[in-house]
Amino acid sequence: MTSTPTPRTWWPVVLTAAALLMITMGARQSMGLFVSPINTSTGVGIVAISFALAVGQFIWGLAQPIAGAYADKYGTGRVLAAGIVVMAVGAALTPFMSGTLGLTVMLGLLMAAGAGAASFSVLIGAAAQRVPAESRGTASGVINAGGSFGQFVFAPLLQKLIQSFGWMNAMFTLALLTLAALPLARALRKRPAAAGAPPAADGGLKQAIRGALADRSYLLLHAGFFTCGFHIAFLVTHLPGEVALCGLPPSVASWSLAIIGLANIAGSLTAGYWVNRYRSKYILFWMYLSRALLVLVYLAAPKTALTFYLFAIGLGFTWLATVPPTAGVVGKLFGTRYLATLFGLTLLSHQIGAFFGAWLGGIAVAQQGSYLWMWYADAVLALAAALCNLPIREAKVERRVVAA
After folding, report:
1. Where does residue 346 rank: exposed (0-12), middle (13-18), buried (19+ CB within 10 A)?
2. What is the rounded distance in angstroms from the CA atom of residue 271 to the CA atom of residue 260?
3. Burial class (CB in 10 A: 0-12, 13-18, 19+), 78
4. Residue-wise pLDDT tens digits, 95-146
5. What is the DSSP string of 11-53?
6. What is the pTM for the complete model shown?
7. CB neighbours (10 Å) of residue 201?
8. Burial of 1 (0-12, 13-18, 19+ CB in 10 A)
9. I need a surface site. Which of 11, 85, 147, 249 has the fewest CB within 10 A?
């Protein structure tokens, strides 16, 4: 007999997942701060470093459904612990790399794969199996806010470490901070009884994936999330470069990234609240549309520190706040049994977009000396993503009525 989950039983799980995501996402979203220092130290070039980080964007996404499948079958604890250790090893070995291949292996393979195994698909999937349906939006919003808070903390911290002790020592420190998340993985090792049950009646994981990939709504969700990845990876990788091109100090970039994280705490919690009350496809439509408009406003505005900070506030509100409604649509379409895997596949699409956002940004600045055409591409893709979400098949949100 399965007991009904209560806030007393599921809130600790949600807060633990949020704390773990704070560390892994905080580190990932601050990697753009290392681009210029690594280039100065190694001389490999902006394009090569951008490619290494672009590979990392793809690998982070590829790790999501794989880690999700293992978590769906064996539980979350071992998957999370393995991811944390691999990420820490990648960070610790990066300072010893001086060529394109070595940087690609460390930043693009080890760090990214480790962070992906300890990220959204596994954490939100674990929470969804423990949280009642009417509270899943709130839970995913809180977990998401943890990742945003990590960006707010890590961006200025790592920038200060880079300036004070050099990028190599900053990377060593990052490895130690990552290992500090291991006790959190242990706290999430226990899985609900249903998570490990053999999939007898539902056809199993392969059938679930096959059915999802034949669903038009699921594919449209992937298309929108592709653009989200392009947008975020372009900014986290190249915002420091854009700030430098505008003649502003590096602190403007680090504080802009921190402000994005802080604003997204509010955005993630708001998105979690909205998911419980409105159809997620409409939430996603307005989020993507707002990004297109904000990019166009930024292009027309004077390039001052205040402009970057206001831009960061606007973008930050929807930054990773797309995750709760996207996970919500997947959960509505296919249930929670294989949510970690199926949501992990949408994150793979997100990271394919991220690969192009990070890599093409490096090519743009190397060939043209600016990111102008990337900004226009970003705005067009955001508008397309908004329109992709409207035809998605999604039931109306049922409002609970309390009987007298």
Report:
1. buried
2. 15
3. middle
4. 999 888 999 999 999 999 999 888 877 887 777 777 777 777 788 788 888 8
5. HHHHHHHHHHHHHHHHHHTTGGGGHHHHHHHH---HHHHHHHH
6. 0.74
7. 6
8. exposed
9. 249
Residue 178 near residue 88 (C-beta atoms within 8 A): yes
**H or E, element range at 115:** helix 111-117
> If you search the block for the tokens 């705490």, which residue do you land on?
265
CA angle (113, 220, 323) in 5-degree steps: 50
DSSP calls for 130-166: TS-GGGHHHHHHHHHHHHHHHHHHHHHHHHHHHHHH-
* Locus of tokens 């986290």: 236
Which segments of 246-338 does DSSP mark as H helices, in order?
A: 250-275, 280-300, 305-318, 323-334
Q: 97: closest CA among 85, 105, 108?
A: 105
Cα 166 to chain centroid, rounded: 27
| Structure confidence by residue, pLDDT tens digits, 325-379 | 998 898 888 887 787 788 888 888 888 898 898 888 888 888 888 899 999 999 9
- CA-CA-CA-CA torsion sign (242, 245, 250, 252): negative
Specify the amino acid at residue 389. N
Instruction: Please tell me the distance from the alpha carbon of residue 282 to that of residue 70, in angstroms, as a whole number.
Output: 32
Exposure string over 58-72, b if 16+ CB within 10 A, otherwise e: bbbbbbbbbbbbbbb
The DSSP symbol for 217 reads H
Rounded to whole angstroms, the Cα distance separating 320 from 268 reads 7
Instruction: Give the distance, in angstroms, between the CA of residue 346 and the centroid of all CA atoms in the same chain.
Output: 11
Q: Rounded to an integer, what distance in angstroms lies between the CA atom of residue 140 and that of residue 146? A: 10
Take residue 293 and report the two structure tokens written for it. 């408009």
Helix, strand, coil shares of the chain as percentages rounded to 5?
80, 0, 20
Reading the block at residue 155, the tokens are: 């961006």
